[in-house]
Amino acid sequence: MPRFAQLVIGPAGSGKSTYCSTMLQHLGAMNRSAQVVNLDPAAEHFDYPVMADIRELIQVDDVMEDPSLRFGPNGGLVFCMEYFANNFDWLGESLGHVEDDYILFDCPGQIELYTHLPVMKQLVEQLQQWEFRVCGVFLVDSQFMVETFKFISGVMAALSAMVVLEIPQINIMTKMDLLSPKAKKEIEKYLDPDMYSMMEDTSDNIRSKKFKKLTEAICGLIDDYSMVRFMPFDRTDEEGMNMVLQSIDFSIQYGEDLEFKEPKEVDDESADLNYDEIFQGKGDS
Asked: Which positions are tagged coiled coil (predicted)?
């Protein structure tokens, strides 16, 4: 039987841990079993129970304090993740093997891990060897995406992760519940954007002709091939969360292998009795 995984990725501060906590509660309310694994060796706290915590294997603070390494925060995080990649056995033992596992991996926020370093790609390949169907969930802060150029930057980061990881990816704008009503209306155009119209609106602000042509080429590529679209994520909106979850489940084909349960058979005598009781109750009322 396959196992299922959400690889929750994105820049620092995009709300990955909050997403994991909220989605875990949402799945629990649906009577669906799910677990979370923390893969951020620099994490200080989170408000969800973890199935496994990479800090039991290695921590950024320990690496930075090692006099023989002398790493800063970024170098320390990269070192930790490379050490993790050489010790996937620890993760395998922590995960065990339970049929129909549904696991959310709360990943670090260093964008280099998803754009050009091989660590996360190696993790994906290892999970696939363990029979996981993996979906990337790329988060960006909606408060950051309210200007055209910032939006294009976010799109390029999401596209880079898609190219490197080579897995189905759902792109999400988080923290929609923190936006003002005016900002929510403004950001709607970025959920299903017309890149050409956006370029026309901002073309007067681009002074360099070469930069303008490059930006137009990027926007044309994204628009013509519908390569990146974002879904809104408001943790107070149950219906919106359901739509996000359905998109993720569809991408990893969750539920297709679940056994169909036939309804219990009811004998004729019991059926007649229930039928009579129902209508007798109606007649009495």
From this structure: none
